[in-house]
Amino acid sequence: GCGLPDNCTNRDAAPASWRRDLIAKKKERKLAHANHAQRPLLIGICTGFIAQRGRYKPGAVTDMSPAGCPHVNGFKVDNWKQNLRVIYQCFVWTRKRKAKSCICHMCGAHLNRLHSCLSCVFFACFAKKHIHEHAKSKRHNLAIDLLYGGIYCFMCQDYIYDKDMEQIAKEEQRKAWKMQGMTRTHTQRHTHHVKAKYSTWEPTKRELELLRHNPKRRRITSNCTIGLRGLINLGNTCFMNCIVQALTHTPLLRDFFLSDRHKCEMQSNSCLVCEMSQLFQEFYSGHRSPHIPFRLLHLVWTHARHLAGYEQQDAHEFLIAALDVLHRHCKDDNGKKANNPNHCNCIIDQIFTGGLQSDVTCQVCHGVSTTIDPFWDISLDLPGSSTPFWPLSPGGDGSALNGESHATGATTLTDCLRRFTRPEHLGSSAKIKCSGCHSYQESTKQLTMKKLPIVACFHVKRFEHSAKLRRKITTYVSFPLELDMTPFMASSKESRMNGQYQQAVDPFNNDNKYSLFAVVNHQGTLESGHYTTFIRQHKDQWFKCDDAIITKASIQDVLDSEGYLLFYHKQFLEYE
C-alpha cells in the first residue's frame, strides 16, 4: 500500500524518485477523499478475504425506502460482488474451513452467532455484542452471519434484504451444495442417493401468472381473527378440541401444513396427516362458523382404539396419541431417517422431540452411566401428591431468571423443573450393576435436558391414580410468559450443586429461551370436568377457546389459570 517494493524495509533508503512519487500519490488520495468522502477504499487482502472500509457520518440515517436498506450502497463499489462471493465461499457455506479459521477476535469463541465485518477483516460474536462494539468503534455498518449468511445492518438494527446480495448468496450456496454432494458421492463410491438440500420456494411462471390475475390480497392486521375458529363438541370431545386448538396455533406446524409439504403415500383415506392438513385449511380459510371435526374424531378412534367411544378422556393422553399417529403417518415426508436412531426427520420430530439425558452415578466408585432418550413432553410432579416433593428455597435457583417469585408462597414452574432435574437416590431396593465395580451398588439418578425441542410441552400431573387414591390436585402453579431452560441443560450440570444453580446468567444467550403460546386447563373433578384452551394469536393477543365459543382473554387471565398442559415455543431457531 505504500508504493515501495515488498522487500524494502527502510523508507529513507528508497530512491528519491520513489519518495517523490509516493508524496504525489498521497496528495491525490487526499484530494480524492475531499471530493468523494462517501466512497469506500480497498484496505487489505487477508487469506482471500478482500475487505472494504466505508466512510459514513454518524447518525446520517435515512428512512428505509422500498429499495431496501440505504446503507448497502456504500458497500457496492469496485469489486464488491467478487469480494462478497469470496466471503460466502470461504467463511459461510464451507463448513470445514469455517470451523478452523473463524473465531471471535475479542473472546476467542467459535460459537455465539459469529459474524464477520464486511468492511474489514474482523470476526466477532453477535450474542455477546462484540461485533456491535466493533461496528460502533469503527463505524462499519454491515456484517454477515457466518452460520446462515444473513446481512445485518447496525444502523437499521436488523437483518436486511438486498436483491443483488441475496442472488450472490443463493448462487454460492448452490455451488457449495453441489461440491459437498460430489465429495460425499466420491467418498461413498456411488453416484446416486445424494440427499438433496432444502431450497427456498421460487414461484413458477404458472404461479406468477395466477398471482397477477388474482391481485386481491388479505391483509393481516393486529386485530385479525384469521386462524380463530371454534370446534363443535361431538359428545365429551373437549379433550380433543383443546389439543387441536393448541396444535393449529403451533407456528412451525401451521407453516408446514399451509405450505402443502405433506406427501401422502397411504392407499386408503385413513391418513391422519391429510386430515390435519385439511383442518389447517379450514382454520385459516377465514370462515367464522364453528368447524365440526367428525372425520378427525373417526380417524382418532381408528388409529388409537383406547380413545374410542364417548367417554371422557385425558387431554394429555390424546396429545401423545395424536403425535404418535402423526409421526407414523408423515415419517416419510423428508426422505431417509435421521442419523439418530431414536427418531426420524418428520415434522413432528423436528418440532416436538427433545433429548432427555439420564446419568446414573455409582455411590462407590462414582462411575457414571449415561443414556439419552427422546421425549415429546415433560411430566412434572406437584406438591400435595403422594410423591414426596422437594423442599424448595427461594433465590439462586433460576426463578428470578424466569421472572417468577415466591413472595406469595406459590409453587412455580421453575420449582417443578428443579425437582425434575434434581439428583435422586435410588436406594438399596433399586441397586444397579456397576460396570466399574462389577457388582450391584446403590446409585443416584439425575435427569437433564440434552437437546431441547422447538416446542416444549410441560404436563403438570394433576390427576393422581394410585392403589389407595384417585383424585385431582388443584395446587396453583405459577408459570411465566418467557422461560429460560439454560439451568436445566446437561451442559449446566457441572455448575449445579445439590439442586442449587450457581452459574452466571448470560443475558445475551437466547438459545434456550421460550415463549408461552398455549395453555390447556381442566375445570371440574376427576370424574366430571371440562377442558378449555388459551391460545396466543399475535404477540400479545390471547383468546380462550371453549369448544365452539372463542372469546378474547387478557394475559392476566392466562397467568392466573390453573394450567394442565403448557406449550412453549423457542424464541430463536437454528435452521440447517
TrEMBL record:
GO terms for biological process: protein deubiquitination; proteolysis. Residues 229-571 form the USP domain. Its EC number is 3.4.19.12. It is found in: Nucleus. Transmembrane segments: none annotated. It catalyses: Thiol-dependent hydrolysis of ester, thioester, amide, peptide and isopeptide bonds formed by the C-terminal Gly of ubiquitin (a 76-residue protein attached to proteins as an intracellular targeting signal). PROSITE patterns: USP_1, USP_2, USP_3, ZF_UBP. InterPro entries: Papain-like_cys_pep_sf, Peptidase_C19_UCH, Ub_carboxyl-term_hydrolase, USP, USP_CS, Znf_RING/FYVE/PHD, Znf_UBP. Keywords: Hydrolase, Metal-binding, Nucleus, Protease, Thiol protease, Transcription, Transcription regulation, Ubl conjugation pathway, Zinc, Zinc-finger. GO terms for cellular component: nucleus. The keyword Protein transport does not apply. GO terms for molecular function: cysteine-type deubiquitinase activity; zinc ion binding. It comes from the Eukaryota. Residues 67-179 form the UBP-type domain. Belongs to the peptidase C19 family. UBP8 subfamily. This is Ubiquitin carboxyl-terminal hydrolase. It comes from Cyclopterus lumpus (Lumpsucker). The gene is usp22.
